[in-house]
Write a structure and sequence with these properties.
Keywords: 4Fe-4S, Cytoplasm, Disulfide bond, Iron, Iron-sulfur, Metal-binding, Methyltransferase, rRNA processing, S-adenosyl-L-methionine, Transferase, tRNA processing. This protein has 378 residues and is α/β, with parallel strands linked by helices. It folds into two domains: 56 residues, DNA polymerase, domain 1; 290 residues, TIM Barrel (Alpha-Beta Barrel). The protein has twelve helices and eleven strands. The longest helix is centred in the middle third of the chain and has 16 residues. The radius of gyration is 21 Å and the shape is globular.
């Protein structure tokens, strides 16, 4: 889950907000290239040190001063201490799918908890990152939504999740040999567009060419949202062609008000209108995410309603991803029967909607983001 310094979208949702936490210490990644030069010169170093540090971080994927052997030892220790404070500590790591799916529970500097999931496929590697500790959207079937919102993550806290995964892949720690991180999805803990500024700045760090960033393709970055319409409209005007994913989960306001409480503010039609405008302006096909929940939202008539609403706005602008729900412990919500799932997909396809069942990797390691953090919270 661009670098525009816009005003963050603020929401007063019904989910609990945990006690205030401290602000993360300043990190090299939080700074623009110009600010990095100012920071190193303020420490008595030559301006070119900023590019050296950027090369180590974004190209060599390290913030360890011991690896910065082209810098004088005294300089590297000072620069690392001032500009690369530790922000994440891996508290727990779980593996699935023969080690090609790795879920990490991170403890942040103030004790807040977030999760990321790295998934290696034959032709790509994808990281799912968190943009908030907890979430304030209060979706009742979501493990993170049950936690409430602790706080937003900083740009550096999000990018550090990415750097750690990219380094793991580059070092060949994931079966299959060394490789690059190719895809990123903001589908971990939190509502990305509720932390708009940090998420946009993160995207700009990721797409900036080396050595100022990771040089990823914006088209391989997906930003998800439950439907914060003003933020979708803002994203539309960013000029960066990320993929927009909208978590719908219901095509009718009556049910979506319950499953996605923000729908009481911005309705299904308002959300779809904003998503369609994103396609019109960017030319980027929108992804519609739909968690299939047994006897709740998986009815064939709801698939028909969704197909009709999508087609009413145009053709070829959307792709649907039904997702078998990954139930959380003790939850009343569970995945749809396979036959019901198949009928739901068939109905969407009958309307001409490209539809692909989402791969549910990591279900045996509490794959839904928020489950490890919830487990630690007791």
């Amino acid at each position: 889950m661009p670098v525009m310094s816009g005003t963050p979208v603020t929401l007063n949702m019904s989910a609990p907000t945990r006690g205030a936490r401290g602000k993360p210490p300043r990190h090299f990644v939080d700074l623009t290239p110009e600010q990095r030069v100012e920071a190193v010169t303020a420490l008595g170093e030559k301006p070119f040190r900023a590019k050296q540090l950027a090369t180590h971080y974004f190209t060599h994927l390290t913030s360890d001063p011991a690896e910065m052997t082209d810098l004088p030892k005294a300089s590297r220790d000072t620069l690392a201490a001032e500009l690369f404070p530790p922000l994440l500590t891996a508290a727990r790591t779980l593996q699935a799918d023969g080690g090609t799916t790795v879920k990490t529970l991170w403890h942040l500097f103030d004790g807040a908890k977030v999760e990321s999931v790295l998934m290696r496929y034959p032709n790509r590697s994808t990281l799912c990152v968190s943009s908030q500790a907890g979430c304030g959207m209060a979706c009742p079937f979501c493990a993170t939504g049950q936690l409430g919102l602790t706080r937003n993550l900083s740009t550096a806290e999000i990018v550090e999740q990415v750097r750690a995964a990219a380094r793991s892949l580059a070092d060949g720690e994931i079966p299959g040999g060394p490789t690059r991180l190719s895809n990123l999805v903001f589908m971990g803990m939190g509502e990305p567009l509720a932390n708009y500024k940090a998420v946009m700045e993160t995207v700009r760090r990721l797409v900036a060419p080396a050595p100022d960033g990771l040089g990823m393709s914006a088209r391989n970055i997906t930003v998800s949202t439950v439907g914060l319409v003003p933020a979708i409209e803002k994203l539309t005007n960013e000029g960066i062609p990320v993929t927009l994913a909208v978590s719908m989960h219901a095509p009718d306001d009556e049910l979506r008000d319950t499953l996605v409480p923000v729908n009481t503010r911005w309705s299904v039609d308002q959300t779809l209108d904003a998503a369609y405008r994103y396609f019109q302006v960017t030319g980027r096909r929108v992804s519609i995410e739909y968690a299939l929940i047994r006897d709740m939202n998986d009815h064939a008539w709801r698939a028909d309603m969704l197909g009709e609403k999508l087609n009413a706005r145009g053709k070829g602008w959307v792709h649907c991803n039904p997702i078998p729900l990954n139930p959380t412990p003790g939850s009343i919500w569970t995945a749809s029967d396979p036959a019901v799932e198949a009928e739901f997909v068939a109905r969407l396809r009958a309307h001409g909607i490209p539809t692909t069942i989402r791969d549910t990797r990591g279900s045996d390691i509490d794959g839904a983001c928020g489950q490890l953090a919830a487990d630690e919270e007791g």
